[in-house]
Predict the structure of Oxygen-insensitive NADPH nitroreductase.
Amino acid sequence: MNTTIETILNHRSIRKFQDRPLSDEQISLLVKAAQAASTSSNIQAYSIIGVKNPETKQKLAELAGNQSYVAHNGHFFVFCADLYRHEKAGEMEKQEVTESIESTEKFMVAIIDAALAAQNTAIAAESMGLGICYIGGLRNNLPEVSSVLKTPDRVIPLFGMTIGYPDQNPDVKPRLPFNHVYFEDHYDTGEQYEEQLKEYNETVSAYYNERTDGRRSDTWTGQMAQMLAHPQRMYMKEFVQKKGFNNK
Amino acid sequence: MNTTIETILNHRSIRKFQDRPLSDEQISLLVKAAQAASTSSNIQAYSIIGVKNPETKQKLAELAGNQSYVAHNGHFFVFCADLYRHEKAGEMEKQEVTESIESTEKFMVAIIDAALAAQNTAIAAESMGLGICYIGGLRNNLPEVSSVLKTPDRVIPLFGMTIGYPDQNPDVKPRLPFNHVYFEDHYDTGEQYEEQLKEYNETVSAYYNERTDGRRSDTWTGQMAQMLAHPQRMYMKEFVQKKGFNNK
């Protein structure tokens, strides 16, 4: 166990920050960390927008479902899937690249690239004693978020990340049982599968029970079924296609 | 600058490994690191398959385009988007979750979750002195890869990761200019955009030139246009939809 792995294992999302902005040096180091991540065939199919303007932050906080920590933090990053520069590369080189750029394959590549870069930023930030929280809530309203951030076609904001000096110290949340997530040699849907989910339900229940003096005792399958029974963001398919992704 | 950030900035893909398997303790720690990553609303929409069987590794190496380091390394992980356990949760809780599970939104969530987990594994491995390489080549033939790994519907292998003790010491590859990837407050497609790509072309050219005694002088836009002019993996849209993703 080294300090990097300790940092990784100690991750908790931080949703309350001190009123203390990150320095430009810190921001620059976090972006460089993002850029150091692996990228499929060096395609670098992502961009990062750092939001400093308080009005823009406030607007994004509202669009993300009134999450105040989107406005109040040390810095707010938005990670985007980006194939705009690749369309440009095609133009510069007089090659027809649309078919490729609009493929589901490249949609996946751009999402993976952006996520790998983001996670580097997250780990780098946490190693500096900062806290982070991913903001998937930006996807509640991507047409508006895109317009606020002026992203062109071929660019989709995927999620935000609030970063800052923590003003809270939440617990690490228990994850699914190791053997439910990790398989050897092949996937296995045998009878242990449902047992593991029930085991995790008990773990999650105990976690909430302890933290709420028994007022809350959710299970994981209960939380998931409840969430998934109410489909969210069903505009997404049409939206990403309109932006030039996931069409072919 | 701390050791974690040094590890992150020093990333190079390693494609040649010593003949020395990872220990079960190392593997377990790398999976725990993966599980510690952020996940959208605790959905944990990914699974990891660790491949130990030499025949399976050989088969996957061939399917990934005869990349020998997929067979010869310290360990080989496959990261999968996984909404199978969420379908199960729906059944256990007698809730209808198909519409949600089959949405483009949840397809994105599962890809992001898997990528964040994978990057934690990558950084943890590198912090232990190991080298890694992502294997997107698995997506050359996902129907066969899925069958080898016995993944059910609602599970898609996204990419592999070779890990092991490095037997080479490649250079760190130069990335796109900082200001081309990082924007403040909003995206900007102004005239600097193409200039930055030209600047990067010179950097990339110089990089190859130096390393090949002038035999190679690719540019980035040239590489990208060439790659994208030949659409790859165009079966993907139909494949992921058949597996129950990205339908709604």
